[in-house]
Amino acid sequence: MPFTTQEFLNVFASYNQTVFPIQVILFLLALSALYFSFKKRSWSDKAISAILSLLWLWMGVVYHILFFSSINKSAYLFGILFIVQGALLIWTGVLQDKLKFHLGRNISCFTGMSLTIFALFIYPAVGHSLGHVYPSNPTFGLPCPTTIFTFGMFLIVENKFPLLVLIVPIVWAVIGFSAAFFLGIKEDISLLFSAIITLGIILTERKKT
Length: 209
Prior knowledge:
Distance between the termini: 43 Å
Number of helices: 8
Number of strands: 0
Helix content: over 70%
Structural class: mainly alpha
Largest sheet: none
Shape: globular
Strand content: under 5%
């Protein structure tokens, strides 16, 4: 790693203190996406896709390029990947309307809801128990918890959708897992597991149809 654990945590602190209270707004947007998935309107699917897109664009531009790049120049590449993911979500979910979110009673939806709840509530609680307290902690709107949330939302999509939108989150899951291994951010172990579970369920469901 080109940086230390303390330098990594300092980036979180700088980000959190600079953008506050945007973290709260992003958290509320995520809750809105969950709400729209079971209180359906004609525009709900596009609204959810737009929220997910906003989250990825935010992470790409604000976190990676403006903050993380101060200690890791690879962050510029990460930022581009996240911006591409945001654009893909706009194209697939908003413009083409190919992401149909629906909370059903099946293993995919149950797992998806579990991942979203984990990302929003359990992930920060685990981090806090490990000593990662505000402002030096990854709040929602930062890559790892937000990627887990995205995996959860993909699991409640009821229709077949282009697997292209899974590539960047899966790539980041592998990269982000390295933080857990090399920097001791143990809550990020869940990132890789969420990617494996999501991909496994989606591929299994597609084989059935």
